[in-house]
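Feature request, filed as a ticket because there's no other form

It would be nice if the structure record came with a short human-readable summary line next to the tokens. Right now we just get the raw output. Example of a typical job, pasted below so the devs can see what we mean:
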Amino acid sequence: MARHRPDFFLFVGDTIYADRRCGGPGIVPGADFVAASLREFRERHRYNREDPAVQEFFRTTSVFAIWDDHEVRNDFAGPTDPLMVTGRRAFLEYWPLQPPREEPSRMYRKFRWGRLLEVFILDTRQYRSPNTQLDGPGKTMLGGPQRRWLVENVTTSTALWKVVVSSVPLAIPTGRPERRDSWSNANVYGLPQRNGTGFAAERDAIVRQLRERGTRNLVFLVADVHHAELIRHHPTPDFSFHEFVAGPLSATLGRPRPLDEGLNPKSLFAVGGVNNFGEVTIEPSHLTVRIVDEAGTVLHTHTIGPE
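Raw output as currently delivered:
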């Protein structure tokens, strides 16, 4: 990634694996424990930063980080998890966030990059309803204030491209049927699941609001599923947007799976079984995304023009 000399790096969750022992042959010692105290959460953050290449990359590159679940533990829902406050404190200590004074635990935020780009980073963890709750109008991943913030700021943005960062995917189901963790309610075939426990009602309501307010040139950047995929969603004849998935950087390797048909998706490219990152470049005439593996090989390139 350093050789690509990016303007900035979006670290889209799972910046540590606090809930996994990291040890054994070929593994640098120092993290063979599950974090349960503030001291241990801090040690897991420091462990990753002991790597010389990581240190050099962070010295030369601006980083916009957000957490997902493994900064605390797998598939956690913030308000109900006793370790959430501890994991959140360690995360805020080790990443360059500056929450507003009146809301010191807030992580969702936005930033503008010239006239072409505005980025909206979501916190999908600390406000969410329990994953086991049945989906419906009362279930939320974002909480009311963040959801209103997202819709208002995206629809009033004057940037050409509006990029929303979500640590969990919109159209790829994760977790188990009785406790879905991503936005999707779909089953393993991509079809709607009865009595679903995802967050699709809120997802679809947000998409509907963005469509009704005339949002164009909308891209979601997501991670979590340990494979790379480029998706075009066309939920209605008059509205479409993209969802780009990248990763993992260094974790268990995943594979593509059927997409949630609820958004009328089309997979443009998908690859599993390889560590990778996504590179996005923006010019006045187009946006280009590349999936790059750990050796620097470009696995796929896709370009879209603005509407």
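Something like this underneath would help us a lot:
The chain has a mean pLDDT of 97.
The radius of gyration is 19 Å.
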